[in-house]
Amino acid sequence: MGRIRYLFIFAYEQALSCIFPVAIFGALAVTKFVELPLPRYDVLLIWCLFVQVVLVKTGLETMEEVKVISWFHVIGLGLELFKVQMGSWSYPDEAFTKVWGVPLYAGFMYASVGSYVVQAWRRLDLQFMKMPNPMIAFGLGIAIYFNFFWHHVWLDFRWLLIVLIFLAFGRSVVSYRLDDRRFNMPVVLSFFLIACFIWLAENIVTFYNGWAYPNQLNGWAIVDLGKLSSWFLLVIISILLVAWHKRKLEYETT
């Protein structure tokens, strides 16, 4: 019974941390089937702004957390603008708030990942142990982000980067608290599990036409499992962004 209790607590805290992504999924589902007075992507942008305000007003997110989440907007939109121009995926619906083929609500999908990370970090009281030197960790993060662009020009170094991640983070452990007890998990495993969750979420989003890969333009198809490697790498950037913010706050308060 004890294990079931902790599993329930874990699921409950995870569900609370996923409020923003779930709100986006719900809006994608509703707007696909309901007639709207504005283009669908514009309505989604308004909805995302509304949800962000509600999260802050209700105390589910703090303004400090919103600051770090805003970086997810910037990084995500930069990636979107490039990838859409390269034909990696597209946004088939029309919108007033589209810039170079990318609707502005797209930034909130990255922000929802950031929202999940910062809320889970706080709710589960995450502590990281045996982490690599910050210069190595953040150097890897920059290389990962750069490779999302570079592989369109020359070689794709993702598998080399994944090997380097295992070398750098292989001994690292994340500790999380559930009620009165702490549990440990290998950091690399946590990266992979979050990537699997995002891949499942991506299937939901593309099913509701949030965006579309080239093989989905004539009808929905399951997202290629190969995308797991991309999400695995993107999760690491997300964790490092929040970790950088946490270290910055700790420095400012000492």
TrEMBL record:
<dbReference type="Pfam" id="PF05675">
    <property type="entry name" value="DUF817"/>
</dbReference>
<keyword id="KW-0472">Membrane</keyword>
<feature type="transmembrane region" description="Helical">
    <location>
        <begin position="186"/>
        <end position="208"/>
    </location>
</feature>
<keyword id="KW-0812">Transmembrane</keyword>
<feature type="transmembrane region" description="Helical">
    <location>
        <begin position="72"/>
        <end position="91"/>
    </location>
</feature>
<keyword id="KW-1133">Transmembrane helix</keyword>
<feature type="transmembrane region" description="Helical">
    <location>
        <begin position="43"/>
        <end position="60"/>
    </location>
</feature>
<feature type="transmembrane region" description="Helical">
    <location>
        <begin position="103"/>
        <end position="121"/>
    </location>
</feature>
<feature type="transmembrane region" description="Helical">
    <location>
        <begin position="133"/>
        <end position="151"/>
    </location>
</feature>
<feature type="transmembrane region" description="Helical">
    <location>
        <begin position="228"/>
        <end position="244"/>
    </location>
</feature>
<protein>
    <submittedName>
        <fullName>DUF817 domain-containing protein</fullName>
    </submittedName>
</protein>
<feature type="transmembrane region" description="Helical">
    <location>
        <begin position="7"/>
        <end position="31"/>
    </location>
</feature>
<feature type="transmembrane region" description="Helical">
    <location>
        <begin position="157"/>
        <end position="174"/>
    </location>
</feature>
<dbReference type="InterPro" id="IPR008535">
    <property type="entry name" value="DUF817"/>
</dbReference>
